Every structure is written in structure tokens, then in C-alpha cells.
From TrEMBL:
Residues 44-269 form the Radical SAM core domain. GO terms for biological process: sulfur compound biosynthetic process; water-soluble vitamin biosynthetic process. This is Biotin synthase. PANTHER family: 3-METHYLORNITHINE SYNTHASE, BIOTIN SYNTHASE. Keywords: 4Fe-4S, Iron, Iron-sulfur, Metal-binding, S-adenosyl-L-methionine. Signal peptide: none annotated. GO terms for molecular function: 4 iron, 4 sulfur cluster binding; metal ion binding; transferase activity. Binds 1 [4Fe-4S] cluster. The cluster is coordinated with 3 cysteines and an exchangeable S-adenosyl-L-methionine. [4Fe-4S] cluster binds at C58, C62, C65. NCBIfam families: rSAM_HydE.
């Protein structure tokens, strides 16, 4: 761990060894170092992102995901442009300066429709960042969205190992295509976020080491990781969820490997443990993503079982987050919260 802090990388064998052999003492040592590194670039600030889950229609059929096209029991919804702008307005008043538009790969939102929504948000909120998370698109489409005013893009690589990728996705999806998208996004100039689930079915310690090394090569500005949590209406209904301990350990390793990264302490982490998001921050994370979606649709964007905050108002989530962060000595700030290299 000392060497990782200095060199900011280890070999696949060394990462695998750490992942297989860490204990509480090693974790605590790692988290202490991770907090020091995080403080160097981001003090005790915690950036908030207003998450707008604007559609749960999806053409894909990822085996782990509750809104996969094969889940005929999911109740589908889409938000109109006005509804999305309404979420932004609520969010702006609550101090959000980043809006994250996330959804399934939904053909209803054509490139023109999406670009129009992005332009409207950009015009109305020139001081805010617009983050997209709408899956795999062509270079031209990503460029169109960027020119319309989007700044950042979240696209988890899910797993860097092609065989493991094939265990989690139907044959028409490939890890290589997903990685290509990430390189396209970087080339265009987005702040790019990638990431993976911890404890997804069939995942090995070696796979996690590959994930770390892929991220080292990609050099994303953000990395989203969270535990895999099963959803009762998916092929993985009976699979075990990822653990709190391993997710936190991976967050700590990521902070040492990519010191300037924006690392969210995710809702999934808060779902498997009541203090999961606080513990994520204490392991090196520096971002939280409270929900800005209208209350009426929140329980329909169910990626996994028992997702938290599906009944709360945006304002409640915002205040709750502030209290939680304060309780551990950190402060939610009103800021776009760019990666230090993009300021
Ligand atoms: N469609 C976009 C995409 O493919 O990037 C964004 C939406 S997708 C639902 C966002 C992320 O949710 C995925 O990258 C995946 O890692 C995560 N996710 C999906 N199902 C999950 C589950 N059962 N447990 C934990 N995370 C899950
Ligand atoms: Fe498309 Fe999950 S399968 S968002």
C-alpha cells in the first residue's frame, strides 16, 4: 500500500494479492492514506450531483439490471423535456451545480431530442455541469451532445475482462465496444467516468485487478463503483450481492491509484449498509449523487432490490446528505465540482 501511494500503480499480481488477503487492519491503513491523498486535492469538500433518472426504457438486456428489456414486470416511464427542466430547477434552488441525466438506451430520445434537451439546460443554467449517462453511442452522437453543451459522461466499463463481460451481458454487447466508446468520449473532450460493480457474478480477484489496470490506462476523471445487488426479476435473482468491505477497499485502492479522480460514494453502497455512503467517503470517495427524479417515478428506476431514497423528496435527500457528511467531518459544497485538471 505504501508503494501504491508512491508509484500510483501495482502489478496485476500485487493487486490480486491485496484483494485476496486484506483484513480490517490493512483496510484502515489504506483508508487513512486515501483520506490524506483526497485532502491534498479536494480538502474536506464533498461534491453533490443531482441525478435525474429520465427513462427506464432500455433496448439492452444486461443480466444484472432491473430495467433490462427482458424484465416484462418493470413499469416503464419517460420524463418529458419540461419535467427534466423542472428537476433541474428544483435542483438548482437546492444548490446542485451538476445535473446527471441517466437512463436506459431508449430510442425515443433521438439524437435531436437529446441535443435539444441538453441545449435547453445549457442555456438556462450556464454555471452548471451537464453529465450524461445514456450508454453506448457513435462518436458523432457523443460529439453532437458535447457541442450541445454536455461536459461529462458516465459509462462504466463494467468489467475489463472480455470473458467476464460475456457472463454479464448478451452476446451482442462486447467489452471492446464499450471501451471504444470511453476512448471516443475522452478524445472529444468530455470529463469521463468509468467504473464497475464489485462482487458481480463470476467476478474474481484477478478480474478486479484487471479493472484497476484498465482504469489506470484509461485515466478517467471519474470512477463509479458500487456493490452488485441482485434484482428479483433478473437472471441473477439468486446471486449474492457484493460486500461493503470489498467495495470500500476498492475505493481506497482507486484513490491511491488515481489521486485526482472524482469518486462517488454510491447509492448502492448506501443500500447494503445504513452508513455505506459515509464509509465510502471515509475510504477516499469525494462525491455523492442524491436523486432529483420526481417522486412518482423513483421506485420505477429499480436497478436492484431495496434501493434507498425511493420515497423521499429531493429536498429531503439534499438535507439528509448534508447531515450525513457533516457527521463525519466533511462538507457538501455548492460547486460544479470539476476534476482538478478541468478547472
Ligand atoms: N444505460 C446507461 C449505461 O449503460 O451506462 C446508464 C444506466 S445503467 C442502469 C447504470 C449502471 O447501473 C450500470 O453501469 C451498472 O453498473 C449499474 N447497475 C445496473 N444493475 C445493477 C445492479 N443489479 N447492482 C448494482 N449496480 C447495477
Ligand atoms: Fe439498459 Fe440496464 S440494461 S440500463
Amino acid at each position: 500500500i505504501d508503494r501504491l501511494a508512491v508509484c500510483q500503480v501495482l502489478s496485476a499480481e500485487e493487486f490480486t494479492y491485496l484483494i485476496l488477503n486484506y483484513d480490517q487492519e490493512v483496510s484502515d491503513y489504506l483508508f487513512e492514506k486515501a483520506r490524506q491523498v483526497r485532502t491534498r486535492y479536494y480538502n474536506h469538500d464533498v461534491y453533490i450531483r443531482g441525478l435525474i433518472e429520465f427513462t427506464n426504457y432500455c433496448r439492452n438486456d444486461c443480466y444484472y439490471c432491473g430495467i433490462r428489456s427482458g424484465n416484462k414486470k418493470a413499469i416503464r416511464y419517460r420524463l418529458s423535456k419540461d419535467e427534466i427542466l423542472g428537476c433541474c430547477e428544483t435542483g438548482y434552488l437546492l444548490g446542485f451545480r451538476t445535473f446527471v441525466l441517466q437512463g436506459g438506451e431508449d430510442g425515443y430520445y433521438t439524437d435531436e431530442r437529446m441535443a435539444d434537451i441538453i441545449r435547453s439546460i445549457r442555456d438556462k443554467y450556464p454555471d452548471c455541469a451537464i453529465t450524461l449517462s445514456v450508454g453506448e453511442k457513435s462518436y458523432e452522437t457523443y460529439k453532437l451532445f458535447f457541442d450541445a453543451g454536455a461536459d461529462r459522461y458516465l459509462l462504466r466499463h463494467e468489467t475489463a475482462n472480455e470473458e467476464h463481460y460475456a457472463r454479464l451481458h448478451p452476446a451482442k454487447l462486447s467489452g471492446a465496444a464499450r471501451k471504444n466508446c470511453l476512448y471516443d468520449l475522452k478524445k472529444i473532450g468530455y470529463q469521463v467516468g468509468s467504473g464497475f460493480m464489485v462482487g458481480s457474478p463470476c467476478q474474481t480477484a484477478g478480474n478486479l485487478a484487471e479493472d484497476l489496470l484498465f482504469l489506470k490506462e484509461l485515466q478517467p476523471q471519474m470512477v463509479g463503483i458500487g456493490p452488485f445487488i441482485s434484482h428479483h426479476d433478473t437472471p441473477f435473482a439468486k446471486e449474492k450481492s457484493g460486500t461493503l468491505e470489498l467495495t470500500l477497499f476498492m475505493l481506497g485502492l482507486l484513490r491511491l491509484m488515481l489521486p485526482k479522480a472524482l469518486l462517488p460514494s454510491t447509492t448502492a453502497l448506501g443500500t447494503i449498509h445504513p452508513k455505506g455512503r459515509e464509509l465510502g467517503i471515509l475510504a477516499g470517495a469525494n462525491v455523492v449523487m442524491p436523486n432529483l427524479s420526481p417522486q412518482g417515478v423513483r421506485d420505477k428506476y429499480l436497478l436492484y432490490d431495496n434501493k434507498i431514497c425511493t420515497g423521499d423528496e429531493a429536498a429531503e435527500c439534499r438535507q439528509c446528505m448534508e447531515r450525513r457528511m457533516r457527521s463525519i467531518g466533511y462538507e457538501v459544497v455548492v460547486s460544479r465540482g470539476d476534476n482538478v485538471d478541468f478547472r
